[in-house]
């Protein structure tokens, strides 16, 4: 295989960029992720790939739940704060306020909307593990255009 062509072609996949909320007995966490897509209308399912061995991946494997927060175009600074390991301070992560809902995973006040998932299956292959989440709750804070990878200039893929 032409590895440069593989990289270029895979980087042609267009993405959003989201804040994924997780939890376990040690507390809550959140990370910025783009490897997310809907995979079914009925039941509503999504697939999310999470870097194997990270705190977030271990939390999802243990708790079998996660949340997805849809950010607004222009919220690059906010999403950038979630590329590193974090510890919650009260009801804030990286200085951003969150609440919890049905799953107990963080739901950020400043996001446009969110959905919460229960993990119904997983594929533990490669350097990221893929979780199939059934959407069990959702909410909308306000209207707006969602943040895209393109506007941030970041790449995570190839
Ligand atoms: C642009 C961008 C997109 C990312 N997308 C993902 C992703 O889809 N899945 C993932 O597991 N990590 C992704 N990451 C890495 C996580 O944001 C980062 O590893 C995070 O700190 C892991 O969290 P944890 O160590 O607190 O569990 C991405 C990083 C960047 C810069």
Beta-strand segment tally: 10
Instruction: Tell me the fraction of residues in β-strands, as a range.
Output: 35-45%
From the alpha carbons, calculate the radius of gyration and give it in angstroms: 15 Å
CATH class label: Mainly Beta
Structural class: alpha+beta
Question: What small molecules accompany the polymer chains?
Answer: flavin mononucleotide
Shape: globular
Uncertain stretches: none
Order of helices and strands: HEEEEHEHEEEEEH
Helix content: 10-25%
Mean pLDDT: 97
Protein described:
By secondary structure, the protein is of the alpha+beta class. It has one domain (3-151): Electron Transport, Fmn-binding Protein, Chain A (Pnp Oxidase, Chain A), CATH 2.30.110.10. Helices cover 16% and strands 42% of the residues. The chain has helices at 3-10, 55-63, 76-80, 149-152, and strands at residues 18-24, 27-33, 36-40, 45-51, 65-70, 92-93, 96-100, 106-108, 113-123, 128-140. The chain has a seven-stranded antiparallel beta sheet, with helices on one face. Flavin mononucleotide (FMN) binds next to strand 2, strand 4 and helix 2. Flavin mononucleotide is lined by residues 29, 31-35, 49-51, 54-56, 83-85, 128, 154, 156.
């Amino acid at each position: 295989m032409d590895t440069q062509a593989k990289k270029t072609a895979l980087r042609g996949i267009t993405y959003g960029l989201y804040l994924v909320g997780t939890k376990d007995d040690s507390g809550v966490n959140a990370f910025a992720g783009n490897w997310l897509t809907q995979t079914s209308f009925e039941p509503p399912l999504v697939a999310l790939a999470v870097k194997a061995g990270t705190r977030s991946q271990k939390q999802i494997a243990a708790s079998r739940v996660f949340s997805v927060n849809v950010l607004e175009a222009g919220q690059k600074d906010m999403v950038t704060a979630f590329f590193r390991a974090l510890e919650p301070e009260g009801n804030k992560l990286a200085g951003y306020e969150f609440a919890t809902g049905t799953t107990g995973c963080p739901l950020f006040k400043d996001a446009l909307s969110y959905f919460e998932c229960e993990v119904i299956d997983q594929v533990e292959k490669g350097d990221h593990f893929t979780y199939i989440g059934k959407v069990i709750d959702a909410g909308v804070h306000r209207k707006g255009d969602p943040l895209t990878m393109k506007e941030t200039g970041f790449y995570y893929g190839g």
